[in-house]
Amino acid sequence: MTVAGMLWGMGMALATLSGCGAPLPAEEDSREPGAETVSTERAALTTRTVVLTPTEDAHVEAASPNASFGASSTLKVSRTPEALTYLRFSGAELPVPGTVTSARLRLFAMNNAAQGVVVHDSPGVHIWDESVTWNTRPDWSDAWLTSSEGPVRSGTWVELDVSGMYIPSRYYSVDFRLSAKGTDSLTFGSSESFEFKPQLVLTVESAENNPPPPPAPLTLSGAPVSFTASGDTFVDAESPGTAQGGATTFKVDSAPMQEAYLRFPVQGLTEAVQRAVLRLYVSSGSDDGPAVYALTGLPWSEASVTWSSRPARTGSPVEDAQGLATGSWVDYDVTDLVRGNGDVTFGLYPTSSDGVTFYSRESADASLRPRLLVWTGAAKTAPTDACLTRTEYVEVPVSALHDTYAAADAPDSKFQHHASLRVDADPRAEAFLRFDVQLRPERIQRVALRLYAIDGTGNGPRLYRASTFDGATTDWNHRPAPVGEPLVDLGAVARDAWVELDVTNTVTASGTYAFALLPDSTNSVGFVSTDAEARHIIGGAPRLVITYESSPFCSYRGTKPSGTTAWVRQDGGALAEAPRHVAPAPDGGFAVVTRLYGTGTPPVPSGHTVTLHRADGAVAWTRSFTQAGVRLEKVVVTTVGNVLVAGTYDGAPDLGKGPLPQGSGIVVMKLKPDGTVDWTRGFRAWFGDPSDPENYQDNPMEVLDLATDAHGSAVLVGTFWGYTDFGNGPLYSGKPFPYDDTYPNSYVLKLQWDGAHLWSRALAGTSLVGTRANSVAVDASEGVIVGGHAGSNTDFGGGTVAERGGFVARYDVGGDFGWARVMSARYGEVTSVGVLPDQRIAFTGNFNGYLSFAGQSYVSREPEEYEGTRDALVGVLSAAGGDVGLRQFAHSGFTDMVVDGAGNIVTTQTGAGNLVGLGDVGWRQGERPRPTLAAFGPGLESRWVRVLGLTSVHELHLATSPDGVVVAGNLKEALEMDGTWYTPQSRRSDVLLFKLRK
Length: 998
Prior knowledge:
Mean pLDDT: 90
Number of domains: 5
Helix content: under 10%
């Protein structure tokens, strides 16, 4: 049977065209000649087999040095007399997209030989064609790529693994030279042969743009708390008045409709929930199991609930099972629904007509009854000592040194470059992983083998220790052996989901650890391999994730109570949420603008909220804005409690007061003290003549900061291209539209309390970088203070300033220019400005190069490098713009700054807490930097510094308050703060709010 016939016999879709000679039977196809393809698709990964035939092949013989054998129907290799064979496979593009993960050269033998053939692959370009002779043969390396094993029998295919060579998907040209391995000569079919052409069989794998979701957080509390059900039942549409609560099993099906409900009393938890799992035992399996939902409606009793009185489900499914095998456990991740103590109810709803039956709490075998397993944060005690000594947990992932699988139906094949690790019982396939582990001196909290499943099974494999191995030499006949009893027995494995196997008791010392995944059912399952991620096919490579607990360290330096925690609040819902800005309210409260994200991967923005909080962090009101094209960025609260919000928009969205002007621009919105919309204003940027569409375009704008004054005005700074009109006629930025590597110039805008234009101006530099206004503040005289980066030749209002660098400028209440201070450097910017109680100006920023301030010279770490590392700055100017004081720090810069009620300058930064100058703070300075807050007095003396948990809170935003400072952060991971754990819902992100004392 030909290979084409073999592939058709497998019942798979096949498209075939031949590169030489008559085409094999096939449908018409416009893809590359010389190829056949067969496809296997799984949830995330598509694997295709491509069979190429040579575009050139020939052999040469030393005994006939001038003879050409390119037209022969056979190819020959021999030692005496010497004969060599040359093969070329080339084309413009492989017939299918993807990455080549394995390659096998197949040759049809025409005679017997005691030993086979050697394949030579040499880098570089080889010039030859089918007219080649012994005298014109190309130079070639004698290095072996591979060789056949054992004797060769006539009439059989010889298969050689050539996966070690690189084969691109486009403009590929692959040359091989073949020589005899032994003294026997060998003859093979050539491309001129009808049925016995040489073949290059490629495995090509690809995946859609489907990055794996974030893995579940590693739980730190050790064993979970197990809760038994206080009620479970199912209802049947065909028996609408019958209660089933006393049954020993419960069923879920769509034909007939059957739904199941469970209730668990969660009690005694003292820490935040990090993970919760509903564990059920399958009495009768299904190819497509049910989904879990939250329940709503009236309370239900298992003794009386029927189809007619059943509760309703709410929201989207929390978890959905695929295949469920009879006699196996299934774990549903229900973390989103279990947030603390109290009764928790779940509904199981069918997703197919292939019903499933689970054992209920009435089962005679107590070990098979439903359970709710809850992991919480490891118990911690709030530190009380002078430096808030604590420990923290850190995950250290170790990549696999080798991973592969072996297949019984391909005993000589090696799969170390394949994108998946396959496990199956029929035909038998086993997967293997090897890790070289160097443990750190800290205490090990947990070790987990983390895998990403690309397809599911109702009964997953078992994990064993295994003998060590090398992936390049592992096939079915040379595979590692399992050692001892299974470490973990997986139950149901969901498609497109992470799997974690606890190996804490196995990985106890540095060394080599090899594992085997052996099948426990005939349901095949695959996991993403290391090569799949390395070759950018699909993410989710195996990791051995080691969680350490650090040695104790100081997380605070200073004088208490300054910088210590007054209160903490976590806000979040079904959608991921992240803060964009926070601002103080006159009564000691504060307002926060947040962005919501959908459940996709990666998450897509799906709206915003504006929330007013009271002084204790409680919510006064919240308002949602879900209009498409809107991006709210900044918020401020006026002295009478109105809330001003600013951001950008595209299109013509309506935020409650009519559509904004069609185009691309910024939006300013005023909310009344009760949260209702009072007015909205939209301002567009453009270039060209609006009446001439071919020469007109919308330009981007952005809002970078927002402030207010005693009269409730809105004062904004940001960037724009081309023209805009804030209400006083067209204002030109000095740059027509975005192009090449240029950056925009800036605007300063002041709107009256009712949204009317008061004044505006452009800050335009002539350099490519442009002039960027980053920050704005208002002083006691209602003067406007602006900080940012000045491009060359910027006119702030008092004439052109040639220098470039960080700047601070002041305008009076009516917009007239007061003064400007440009701190000239190769590159420099002011990132934040604030007003001290004595009306001096505090600022933070960064610079690269050389800087002069108050008669003192400052030099960055890499002053001569054009894009050298920048150093951070915190400084003070007088009310008239004179130099007062400056401090330089060897870190990347401050991310936010405010002046608190005591006149302290409070900053946020990423790591580098030791540089504040109060002593060692934080753990292992070489680790990933931690979110850090610091405070400096009005004279720039260091007051306190505080280091938070490892990358748990991102993008810290600050707002002053009468008794301290409010901090808003994006909680993406479990965070322990003062002995209490905070964990984001839905494994995405929540808003974490906390107040630090002044």
